[in-house]
Amino acid sequence: MSQGLIDFHCHLDLYPDHPALVDECERLGVRTLTVTTTPKAWPRNHALASQTRYVRAALGLHPQLVADRAAEVSIWESHLDETRYVGEVGLDAGPRFFRSLDQQKLVFDHVLKTCSRRGGKILTVHSIRAAKAVLDAVEAHLAASRGRVVLHWFTGSTSDARRATDLGCYFSVNAEMLRNERAKSMIAGLPIDRVLTETDGPFTRTGDRPARPADVATAIDLLADLRRSNRDATARQVTKNLRTLLIAADIDPD
Ligand code: MN
After folding, report:
1. Distance from Cα 129 to the centre of ligand 1, integer Å
2. What's the CATH fold of domain 6-248?
3. How far apart are the CA of 200 and the centre of ligand 1, in A?
């Protein structure tokens, strides 16, 4: 695997120039995991990422859409054999989505159990205000030997993070998190070999525009500062972490 930038959670299909952005990631060599929010978006995302060196697509059903789209879990399942990457999935107990939390839990449990049965999946997981519930579900339904969880934009406490680490989870961190004092102290305590980087574009910004995958360089710089390291060493570490994760899920890292 070449050295370089890794954006392990980005929504390429939410930009107006989705195909051009795939090409941009390829040209710049940014290893990008593009997540989907509904399995209806899967076929196009899959098609655009099927011949690529650096871009992979993940099959998702976003917790914020479960209230309206829970029935799509059957579509999600029908595509599952087409990919090793699952997301965006998870739980959201924030005020806008709290009402669907029971339904979200049913869907997320089903996702975890199905991934456990099939084996070899990597999941990028949302856990807003639901760190404990997400970890309870992972602990109950997806042993690390059956699939690997990457907690995206994790906002749990330091002790939640420790529990997640013990469960074998990875963490993808973005520049916005690395500018937040509370998140910074949680990230500073993570084992460095479990840390990946992300933009969560277009939901974060670089300057006055939505972040693009190459902007994950900012997260690397901020992570290097936090760890009192430098950009190259940090980029190398994150690349190594991704390689270890892929090998753990029995995915060819090259
Ligand atoms: Mn996202």
Report:
1. 15
2. TIM Barrel (3.20.20)
3. 5
